[in-house]
Amino acid sequence: MMKYRYSSFVGFALGQNTGSARHRKRLGFGLVGCLLLLVCSEGIGLENENPDYAAARARMVKQQLDGTRDAIKHPGVLKAMASVPRHEFVPEELREVAYADGPLPIGYGQTISQPYVVAFMTEKLDPKPTDKVLEIGTGSGYQAAILSGLVSEVYSMEIVEELAERAQIDLARLGYRNVKVRHGDGYRGWREAAPFDAVIVTCAPDRVPQPLVDQLKDGGRMVIPVGGSLVQTLYLLRKHGAQLEQEAILPVRFVPMTGEIRNTTP
Ligand code: SAH
Questions:
Q1: Ligand 1 pocket, 255 CB below 6 A?
Q2: What is the H or E stretch that residue 249 is in?
Q3: CA distance 192 to 165
Q4: Which of 181, 221, 218, 205 shows the shortest CA–CA distance to 260?
Q5: 137 lines ligand 1 (CB under 6 A)
Q6: Is 75 helix (H, G, I), strand (E, B) or coil?
Q7: Which of 255, 262, 264 to mutate to test the pocket of ligand 1 (most atoms within 8 A of CB)?
Q8: How far is the CA of 39 from the centre of ligand 1 (A)?
């Protein structure tokens, strides 16, 4: 039976420095160890991370993603989930629960998705190191941060200006340099940066926006929840020339896509 997955639950990660202990013996702690730690944590702002968050993140991966019946198998996705400091993307008063198994509010009536949903959608997108990916619905910037280490470039659009600004600041602060955030309605996509190898939509329209299909490369993939305001179906779409192959993969609940899609008819 299909399980409902709610886009706004919470999740944890392995420390960035797990490899360093082995090196210490051989290389004699000191400078090399320090350099390793620095290199490993550079760019993601984890050098002063509270160990409780790292432990919580590791538990999240183990209990919610790796050890479940519908386990996430993609090693890169698991690594990203184990590395990205989710607590940095939630409001300060919710940091303690940032790695729980559920969505969390991020302000403006919006949510950061459940860790499993983020990992699942990323896995389904089949990210490749050379990919250019478009995300619609930046929200906190967490999903974009997860994609950042898996692909070449991430373009992310957010309709709520304050969220777009905050995500841009957080992503820059944490060193995710290959993510570009733009404030605007994602319905029409990001024409100047198109075509994309993959598109991920993290808000729910009642139909697939045609401009997003147009901006996909031939052979490109799109992961998108489509449906009404209460529950939607997550689809994996594959573009083959003029054909769009559709696979319904999971019932989900996302916040609705707002903006132009609501004022237009199919
Ligand atoms: N991916 C986000 C969570 C997204 S919540 C994260 O990792 O935190 C869905 C987001 O989609 C909300 O922030 C909402 O404001 C945004 N959104 C809704 N309609 C949109 C549209 N037409 N264009 C761009 N963003 C939209």
A1: yes
A2: strand 243-253
A3: 20
A4: 205
A5: yes
A6: helix
A7: 255
A8: 32
Give the integer Cα–Cα distance in Å for 33 and 24.
6
Residue 113 CB–ligand 1 contact under 6 Å: yes
> What distance in Å separates the CA atoms of residue 57 and residue 224, rounded to the nearest whole number?
26
Rounded-to-integer distance, Cα 140 and Cα 167, Å: 5
Q: Where does residue 92 rank: exposed (0-12), middle (13-18), buried (19+ CB within 10 A)?
A: exposed
The answer to pTM > 0.90 is: no
Give the residue numbers annotated as catalytic, written as ranges. 113
pLDDT digits (tens, 9 = 90+) for 8-29: 332 222 222 222 332 333 333 3
First to last CA, the chain: 32
Per-residue pLDDT reduced to its tens digit, 119-164: 999 999 999 999 999 999 999 999 999 999 999 999 999 999 999 9
DSSP bridge partners of 243? 240
Question: How far, in Å, CA of 86 to CA of 14, rounded?
Answer: 12
Ligand 1 touching residue 205 (CB < 6 A): no
Structural domains of the chain in order of their starting residue, each with its CATH number:
9-263 (3.40.50.150)
224: nearest Cα among 189, 259, 200: 200
Q: Report the C-alpha gap between 108 and 126 in whole angstroms.
A: 31
Distance of CA 125 to the CA centre of its chain: 11
Phi, psi (5° rounding) for residue 140? Answer: -80, -20
